[in-house]
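Sample A.
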Amino acid sequence: MNNRKHARVSVDLPVKIYLSGGDSVNARFSDLSEAGAGIVYPVAADPGVVLSLQFQLHGKNARHTINVKGQVMHNFLYHDEYIIGVQFVDISLEQRSLLIAYLSYLRKLRSS
């Protein structure tokens, strides 16, 4: 049973995760919604940890960089990698609007 308030869309989208020491690592989103995402990553993340994320949305006529914090809600092993479920906790109204428009664009593309 899925208790999510916002439907997720399957994606294969690069995301950069900034670590507390200043380093960054590259990962991929497996799904995305206006409120959170699934991140494919080689190791588990502790629930409750807040990650700094950066990713780009590519639309028909524009590209937008999104910087957001995501709180780890859960993670599970899938094949030889982990899927880390994050909830966005620090997203501006402008970035949320861009995300909603991007997800709508993807849904429209997939339904045609």
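Sample B.
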Amino acid sequence: MSDIPSSFGHYFRDKASNPILPAFVIAWILINYPITLIVFDGADAVAKIKAIHSYLRPDGAFNFQRGFLYPAYSALFYSFIFPLMTGGVVVYQEWINKLKTDLQLIAIKKNCGPAGKA
């Protein structure tokens, strides 16, 4: 019986360590910032619920793009595409540094003469 809280903790830790979930939550909060503002507003609970309902369902149907697709696309971009782009920048910087070092070596060899003597 004491294993249940432990296994629940492991399950929650595994899910929380997945980079897509926090990225989705952050993207959802940023894309749906009016809801965050409504939640922290000083109005009563009924007014907050009505405001959130009118934001998420402006025409009576759930706004699937704003509520799910845009945050999901943002989370996937941040989790998969963004690291590839930053990896490309790192490779480019390493290539530039190697090119710079090679040009410096060529300049040193040119200044030292054919036998490598000054």
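B remarks: Helices lie at 3-16, 20-31, 33-39, 45-56, 64-112. The chain has one domain: 3-112.
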